[in-house]
Write a structure and sequence with these properties.
- The chain is of the alpha+beta class.
- The chain has 5 helices and 9 strands.
- The protein has a 7-stranded antiparallel beta sheet with strand order 2-3-4-8-7-6-5, with helices on both faces.
- The longest helix has 35 residues.
- It is globular and about 75 Å long.
């Protein structure tokens, strides 16, 4: 009877170890997949984290569009969200935004900000800049990154919220 109890105990330990190992592999593969989405020759030049959307039923990344402008230090790529092409640009948060807290809000006001909402990773401002003929642009300044998202046609606030809640922080 004691031998049977020990076998069950060992079987339970092995079973739990397999589950923990399996979860670790799944999490590791997800992390490596996200990390591998930005080519290493670009990733090595970045001095800021990247807010990157995971592919899902609503958002698909066009990996061939990933570019980094070394002169302006701006990362850009194109995704399709809810059937709409969306150009994303990211850069390190400008020093002025850190030095003068009201500066970011002034920029949003100049871009004709009309709505804002909170997401899992920070606040999003929806704007309609005059220099883009009032086309919609979503702006987020969080975790040392300034992100602009410019869709080819308007997204709803609900779609924007889902998009921003799907962003992953990578470097």
């Amino acid at each position: 009877m004691r031998l049977n109890h020990q076998r069950r105990k060992i079987a339970l330990i092995v079973f739990l170890a397999v589950i923990v190992l399996g979860l670790g592999v799944m999490i590791g593969l997800k992390y490596l997949t996200v990390q591998a989405t930005i080519p290493s020759h670009i990733k090595n030049q970045l001095d800021f984290i990247v807010l990157y959307p995971l592919d899902n039923e609503d958002t698909v990344m066009d990996r061939s569009t990933i570019k980094y402008d070394t002169r302006t230090k701006v990362l850009s790529f194109v995704i399709t969200s809810y059937g709409v092409k969306n150009t994303i640009t990211e850069q390190a948060t400008p020093e002025a935004f850190n030095d003068i807290p009201q500066y970011y809000q002034k920029v949003i006001d100049q871009m004709n900000g009309y709505s804002s909402f909170d997401t899992d990773i920070g606040k999003v401002n929806l704007t309609r800049p005059a220099h883009l003929n009032g086309e919609q642009v979503a702006v987020m300044n969080t975790k040392g990154v300034l992100l602009f998202a410019h869709p080819s046609k308007d997204l709803t606030q609900s779609e924007w919220r889902k998009f921003f809640n799907n962003l992953q922080v990578i470097k």
